[in-house]
UniProtKB/TrEMBL annotation:
Annotated Ribose-phosphate pyrophosphokinase N-terminal domain residues: 9-126
Highest rank taxon of the organism: Eukaryota
Source organism (scientific name): Culter alburnus (Topmouth culter)
Record's function text: Seems to play a negative regulatory role in 5-phosphoribose 1-diphosphate synthesis.
Gene Ontology cellular component terms for the protein in this record: cytoplasm; ribose phosphate diphosphokinase complex
InterPro entries per the UniProt record, alphabetical: Pribosyltran_N, PRTase-like, PRTase_dom, Rib-P_diPkinase
Protein name according to UniProt: Phosphoribosyl pyrophosphate synthase-associated protein 2
Family membership: Belongs to the ribose-phosphate pyrophosphokinase family.
Length: 357
């Protein structure tokens, strides 16, 4: 049937051909055709969007995957949302599997909470609903004043473990830092496996920025405060020697996280696990950004396999590194679109999902 049947229109807002693959998969599962739209860059790098069919009084779903040019991706989405709004669409639902700038969701020194800014821009442009997957911090949902459905990729990753790792019963779920221990615990409890946590020098640098470990040393300046005030100085944190809490000797180690971009912390964790006796190492994450020379580093590392979903296109990275495998999550996105369009409950997609998933 056509994309417009039943008042449903599906657009892909990305001018990058490789980024439109997820949209085609979703449309195929729904039995519709993608809506007709032109998205391209002018000679001066301005983004132009031209919708080529009527969207008046229809539910418009805009699928946008993040390419390497993140800022262009955002502008394409905002311009298309606004174009649909001015064309009198009834509802404009953004399907953004990986929410960009999600790591910039906390105030750090004199920085800014960029994900809050981006949420405000999307709402101002005319977005009425958002479908996303595995937000870096669940609190990002509070930045929006529209409904947000934060879907989970864990059922697909768990299924991959059970079907593609024959001896997974001899595995242990690993958190590469204490910050990801809750996610690892959730995987371990569902698979009835043990858990291990890496603590120490291999801990990722994001936590360092949050807790102020990289701040300049405090200088006691008596003239800057009232003489009667004696503010106690906070003792600076110091990372302990690297430690693996849990037994990984003679086991398969499965490192789980939500994003894999800069792979240095994953490589360090893999080396540590090899030294502790793990004989196979898998890395599983929802969003495979895999920037820069990540594929080459993975190929040369102790990691046996990296499993990510197709929330972000990474076909080029797969050609560079055969260790990278993809899990398709178009099924849950297409079901979410169908339920929202038909006014059905979304609770089925969140069954058995806990706060830590």
């Amino acid at each position: 049937m056509s994309a417009a049947k039943g008042g449903l229109v599906i657009f892909t807002a990305n001018s990058n051909p490789s980024s439109r693959e997820l949209g085609r998969r979703i449309a195929e599962r729904l039995g519709v055709e993608l809506g007709k739209v032109q998205v391209y860059q002018e000679a001066n790098r301005e983004t132009r969007v031209q919708i080529e069919e009527s969207v008046r009084s229809k539910d418009v779903f805009i699928i946008q995957t993040v390419s390497k040019d993140v800022n262009t991706t955002i502008m394409e989405l905002l311009i298309m949302v606004y174009a649909c709004r001015t064309s009198c669409a009834r509802n404009i639902i953004g399907v953004i599997p990986y929410f960009p700038y999600s790591k910039q969701c906390k105030m750090r020194k004199r920085g800014s909470i960029v994900s809050k800014l981006l949420a405000s821009m999307m709402c101002k442009a005319g977005l009425t609903h958002l479908i996303t997957m595995d937000l870096h911090q669940k609190e990002i949902q509070g930045f929006f004043n529209i409904p947000v459905d934060n879907l989970r990729a864990s059922p697909f990753l768990l299924q991959y473990i059970q079907e593609e790792i024959p001896d997974y019963r001899n595995a242990v779920i690993v958190a590469k830092s204490p910050a990801s221990a809750k996610r690892a615990q959730s995987f371990a409890e569902r698979l009835r496996l043990g858990i291990a946590v890496i603590h120490g020098e291999a801990q990722d640098a994001e936590s360092d920025l949050v807790d102020g470990r990289h701040s300049p040393p405090t200088v006691k300046n008596i003239g800057a405060i009232h003489p009667s005030l004696e503010i106690p100085l906070l003792i600076p944190k110091e990372k302990p020697p690297i430690t693996v809490v849990g037994d990984v000797g003679g086991r398969i180690a499965i490192i789980v996280d939500d994003i894999i971009d800069d792979v240095d912390s994953f490589l360090a964790a893999a080396e540590t696990l090899k030294e502790r006796g793990a004989y196979k190492i898998f890395v599983m994450a929802t969003h495979g950004i895999l920037s820069s020379d990540a594929p080459q580093l993975i190929e040369e590392s102790a990691i046996d396999e990296v499993v990510v979903t197709n929330t972000i296109p990474h076909e080029i990275q797969k050609l560079q590194c055969p260790k990278i495998k993809t899990v398709d999550i178009s099924m849950i996105l297409s079901e979410a679109i169908r339920r929202i369009h038909n006014g059905e409950s979304m609770s089925y997609l969140f069954r058995n999902i806990g706060m830590d998933d």
